Amino acid sequence: MMEMEIRDIHNNIVGKKEVPDIVFNNQASESVVHSAVVAYMANQRQGTHATKTRAMVSGGGRKPWRQKHTGRARHGSIRSPLWRKGGIVFGPQPRDYYIKLPKKMKETALFKALTLKYRDNEILLLDKLELLRPKTKDLVEILKNLEIFGKSVLFVLPEKDENVFLSARNIPYVGVVRAGDLNAYYISLFEKIIFTVSGLDRLLQIKGVTS
After folding, report:
1. How far apart are CA 144 and CA 141, in angstroms?
2. Which of 99, 124, 136, 200 has its Cα between 20 and 30 A from that of 176?
C-alpha cells in the first residue's frame, strides 16, 4: 500500500489515503498504454470512407473509339483510372477498424497510465468537489487555488455531476469523466488528473481492487 495526500479545494492538506500499489505503482510495460490508446482511437473511427472504382463510376459502357488506325492509344472505357472523372485505383473503401483488447489488458493499461502520471506528480486527490450551481467562475477559482489553471485537467467523479459538468465545459482543456468511464486514453490526453476521494473509491470498486 502507498499513501496519497488529500487536499481540499483551497489546496490545504486535510489528510492521507492509502491506495493499492497495483494502481499507482504498476510494474507493467509502458507499451501496454500505447496499445490501449491506439485501440481506443481506432475504435472511434467510423470507417465509412469510400471512393469509386472504375466499376462504380457511371458511364463508359462502350469503347470510346476503335482499336486501330486512329493514331491514339488503345482505350476500352472513358472511366479508366487514366481518364479524368475515371475510377480511383486502390482508394479507401469502407472497413472496420475495431481492435479488440482483453479486459485485463485494458485494466493494466489504465493502472500503468495512472502510475506514470503519479510518478510525474500529475495526480491530485480532493476530499470533495461540490458546486451549488453550474457556474464556470466557481470552478476557475478552484483551479487557481490548486495552481493548475491554464493546464489541461481531467476531473474524475464517482457519478455524473451536472453542476461540475456544466461549469467545466466552457473552460478550455478541462474535462469531467465518471470513474467507470476512465481509460488510458483519457489519462494520456490530459496533463493533470484530479480524483475526488469518492471518485477514486468508485474506480477501485469497479475494478475490484481493495484499498
Report:
1. 5
2. 99
DSSP for 195-206, please give it. EEHHHHHHHHHH
Q: Could you give the dihedral angle defined by the CA atoms of residues 201, 207, 210 and 211, in that order, rounded to the nearest 10 degrees?
A: -40
Supply φ then ψ for residue 143, to 5 degrees: -65, -40
Between these two residues, 1 and 137, which has the higher pLDDT value? 137
Question: How many domains is the chain built from?
Answer: 2
| Domain end (from 77, 96, 115) | 96
pLDDT tens digits, 173-192? 999 999 999 999 999 999 99
Q: Is pTM, for the whole model, over 0.90? A: no
Residue 90 lies in a domain: yes
On average, the pLDDT of the chain sits at 94
Q: Could you give the 3-state DSSP secondary structure of residue 61?
A: coil
Q: Which residue in the block uniquely carries the three cell numbers 487557481?
A: 144
What type of residue sits at position 129?
A: L
- For residue 211, the model assigns a pLDDT of 59
Query: Do 174 and 108 sit in the same domain of this protein?
Result: yes
Cell of 34: 500505447
Q: What is the pLDDT of residue 24?
A: 93
Closest listed residue to residue 26, CA positions, set 190, 155, 202, 187: 187
**C-beta separation of 143 from 164 below 8 A:** no
Domain that holds residue 56: 49-96
